[in-house]
Amino acid sequence: MSQADVNSKTALVAHRDLLPRGRPHPLILAMVLAAGGTAKTSTTTILGTVLALRGYTVRIFDLDPQCNTSEILGRREEHKEPDQPTVWDLIQGLCTLDDATVQARYRVGYDDDGDPIFAEVPNLYVVHGDSQLTDTDTLLANKPNKFSWFYNLTGQYAKGSQVAQEREVWLLDLPANYGKLTLSTLFGLTEDDEVIPPLLVTGKESGALEKLLRELLRMRKEFAGDMAPATPNVKNILLCATPTSSHNAQEYHDTVEEVERDYPGMVLPHVRHSGVTAKQYRRQVTPPISDPKSAPSVDYEKVADALGFPDLEP
Q: Distance between CA atoms of 54 and 140, rounded to whole angstroms?
């Protein structure tokens, strides 16, 4: 492919501003929906891998106590070095962001002792998860000053104690609830950031989308006038596990039609149902690396384009 062809291909995709309005901290995309199994973790890990392979520096915050994001990205909690700080330490102010951040990996095999062998994913990093995040609500209730932990973290960039990496973007994998951990994180988002609800195509999850929008509206009203921006908003909706020839129940079609009707212009390219997605948990490797031509790999490439992240390394 000639450079002219590369430039033409990249020009087709609008470039997302990675430092919106000239601010010093990176653009933030938060995967949020209060319903279990909504593809938040799959979206975070697969989209994160796609962006990293496209040349962006991607930092993923594993904020779900289940730590599935860390596990998929080769960082199981039980394999963590004893002195490795985690996002739990970061929230408590016991370490820096860089201290809690580790290189994402994928499993390539096993050694003679049966221990896994990993290779690094270029440009992809994860703020290490921690099952102790289940205690976050208690922590924030006992120490209200910690509620602004994420806002304070972004503020470190304004103070110059943290510097954004070139082409850096943050992805957040949040719990499936609107507890204090979720709210304290969203408290630091501005109108330039984005809450993306990954929605499985069932009626149950469609109701969860309406609840999310009400919760974000309530939050913006509650924190209006506070020092933090607290303006999280939904600009795009991601429909996941959409119908295929082998996954073709009428309710799936009905949900797709309903969401596209009720939220015109907000629905991203669909992510089709595929058994490849579930395999990343067991295999500890995301589809863009293990199966680059699979449906989720191809579909999340289209999602990345729609979100304004052209391939920087075509």
A: 37
What torsion, rounded to 10 degrees, do the Cα atoms 30, 32, 38, 39 define?
Answer: 10
Strands 238-242 vs 198-200: parallel, antiparallel or unpaired? parallel
Cα of 188 vs its chain's centroid, Å: 15
**Kind plus residue range of the DSSP H or E element containing 141:** helix 136-142
Neighbouring residues of 12: CB distance < 8 A, sequence distance ≥ 6: 305, 310
Give me the helix-helix angle, 275-283 and 40-53, nearest 10°: 80
The per-residue pLDDT for range 262-279, each reduced to its tens digit, is 999 999 999 999 989 889
Instruction: Specify the pLDDT at position 222.
Output: 84
For residue 304, give every residue at least 6 positions away whose Cβ sits within 8 Å of its Cβ, in sequence order, or none: 47, 50, 51, 54
Angle at alpha carbon of residue 70, lines to 67 and 72, rounded to 5°? 105
Point out which residues pair with 103 in neighbouring strands: 125
Backbone angles phi, psi at 278, to 5 degrees: -65, -25
Asked whether the beta carbons of 269 and 300 are under 8 A apart, the reply is no
Measure the CA–CA gap between 32 and 235, rounded to whole angstroms.
13
> Is the pTM for the entire model greater than 0.70?
yes
Distance between CA atoms of residues 6 and 313, nearest Å: 9
Antiparallel, parallel or unpaired: β 116-127 and 101-110? antiparallel
Q: Is 21 exposed, middle or buried (0-12, 13-18, 19+ CB in 10 A)?
A: exposed
Structure tokens belonging to residue 157: 């960039």
Kindly state the DSSP code that residue 91 receives in the 8-state scheme: H
Neighbouring C-beta atoms of residue 20, cutoff 10 Å: 15
| 84-102 pLDDT, tens digit each | 999 999 999 999 999 999 9
